[in-house]
């Protein structure tokens, strides 16, 4: 009979030690959509719980970027030392949101997969373990304008040759008249 009483207690302890901490994260982040073309807008949002802050700090890590992370507006600027992208936290419900317009980024953000970090304290990628943080992956694809070439008509080559022949004939005619 004693084993029957101990089992529910063990299950309850495991629930509070393993399951509950995984559910109640101090800060969260989602990206919508998570795959975009260069120049699109990504909507970042999340929640902060158990941490009293008026803003969250965002930075980006990925290929060809500074290892400390970079701001979302200028990928040439390393995150840290007061330089972050920030999003205000609604003090009533702990939500935050940020619309990241990738068409107005300073610097070169190449196509690839990146990680966006949200932290509750102004720390960079090298010090991120010092406080609560969350991440989300985003994929940047080439802009649709670059990805879709404009098809040329087969007659465009013929037209180009005709224009070149006419221009050449006119130049030869001018040289013969002047010389």
What features would you describe in this structure?
28% of the residues lie in helices and 27% in strands. By secondary structure, it is an alpha+beta fold. The chain has one domain (21-147): Immunoglobulin-like. The strands form two sheets. It has a five-stranded mixed sheet, with no helix packed on it. The radius of gyration is 28 Å and the shape is elongated. The termini are far apart.
Provide a count of the helices. Answer: 3
Major sheet attributes: 5 strands, mixed
Number-wise, the strands total 8
CATH superfamily: Macroglobulin (MG2) domain
* N-to-C SSE string, H for helix and E for strand: HEEEEEEEEHH
Quick take:
The protein has helices at about 1-25, 145, 155-179, and strands spanning about 30, 35, 40-45, 55-60, 85-90, 95-100, 110-120, 135-140.
